[in-house]
What does this fold into?
Amino acid sequence: MKESKALFISACLVGFGIMGVAWLVSQSWIQEGAAKLDLVGGGGFVSALLFAMAFAMLATFMVPSSMMKLLMGAILGFGWGTIAAWVGSMLGAIPGFIISRHIMAEKWQNYSEDKALFKAVENSIVENGIKTIIIVRLSLILPYNILNYLLGATELKQRSYIIGNIATIGPSLIYAWWGSQMSNVAEVATGVEKDLLWWVVMLGSIILTTFFIVYTRKLTMQHLEQWPNEQEQENTISN
It folds into this structure.
């Protein structure tokens, strides 16, 4: 048990470490490569497809999705930028989920098997699979890349995960719009101007995230109340 716990904690630390390095690298990459990237602008199906494929690959390595969506809007314009960001978001959500499902899922299930709280939270998320994914994908303050891996470790059905990821259209529209309003690609590195739209979107994201936490907590408490009965039934079956 101690070995499983140590492995789980180590995996989390490594994941956060990779995310930090990826963020730093992406900042430098955007600043230094902005002029070159601007050469492929102008929109079009081929450009959108190439950017979507690049998004899917880079998202697996924890490159911030918000930066990539802004970049697509700045280079491809609002229309094609939105399409590229949306398709890229849906494709990019799959590799991390599958990797985690094959590497971390069994270890997580073994670790949380006798942890009532962890199991109750997971059951609450899995029980409302599609709804859960829609809510977390619409929120701009929940980390897209990390969620891909965390959700893969749960017993969430792949079908629910894929369908729920359609909701990435929301952030894709917003970030592509912000990107399209930038005068040049290099501005992506400085982030979005905190205007009225930014505050409205952030407020909406906070409300969505709060609702998700409160609703999940309610379901978690219900599962915790049922935990003794479920354990008793499992023991009866095993005996």
Residues 196-238 form the longest helix (43 residues). The radius of gyration is 20 Å. The CA atoms of residues 86 and 169 lie 5 Å apart.
